[in-house]
Amino acid sequence: MSDVQNVTPEIIDVPEVISGADQWLAEQRAKVSSIAEEYKPHQITSGQDYRDSKRARTSARKAIKEVEDARKQQVGAIKSAVKDFETQVRDLLEPLSNVDADYKAALTEWENLVIDSRTQSIAAWYEDEFPDVSSVIPFKTLWDRFSAEGKWGLYGTNEVAIRDDVEKRVGEIEQDLATLVSAPYDDADKANVKAEYVRTLDMSSALRNADEARKAREALKRAEEERKKREEEAAEYERQLRLANEQAAREQAEKDERERQQRLAEAEAARQRRIETGQEHPTPVQPKPVATNESATRTLVFEVTVPESVAGQFVAAMKSIDGVHGKKIGVR
């Protein structure tokens, strides 16, 4: 802070035109009263009176103009004098311009020093007095949440009052944490609520955020379940459609085979009628092949794949061959 400045007042002479303004104004008022008394308009009664009134009017206007000119001259002189006077006094307070700011800066510096020292002392006391709470909630978090309300950062606040308020807040925090332990939440939600609470010391906000997070998880879970359900329904629909198509193909193959067998039977019946009527010679019966010893002792096994649409035809063809046996072993 700068040293106190001793200032000697400087006497500034007031311009004469300003100091004599009252006397000049009194003189002009007297002159105006005299003119008003001398020149009084009246009702004209004769030609001579008319001419006298015109001359009187001219003289009155001249006298009024003299007063007006004097007024303008005096006002201009006063304005000029005031302007000059303002120039002289403009820097009058310059030597004192920094005095108040310097005092304020010095006072603020001291107040901040006291507040910082007091805050450090309370922070150390808080950590020693409440080790369980201070291990999870730093003093800065406590300060950010409650200092404005408790006026901890004001110079005039008593340190004992701040400690009492801190102790009260710690009691509330301990109660909140105990309530959270017995709350009907699962461990994950409790952990989320506690993490949010020790960060903000606002239990309502922590519970609200945890509830919103839980609802979001549940909504995500429902969406996933619905997605899986749709996929399962689509897969089941595809399976049922495939089975229906396979059944239709089998039924069509069986129908085609029945129709083929019917056509063969009808053709054979027609051939027999032609033979009976002499229209066609009977086909000589081919002797069945005689199995040799080699063929009797060996059986060949084949693996074949047959499209489902012609399965009936394949089975019928195989049955028409002597010595051929088999069964269906699966579907690919």
TrEMBL record:
It comes from the Bacteria. Residues 245-295 are annotated as: Disordered. Residues 248-279 have a biased composition (Basic and acidic residues). This is DUF1351 domain-containing protein. It comes from Parafannyhessea umbonata.
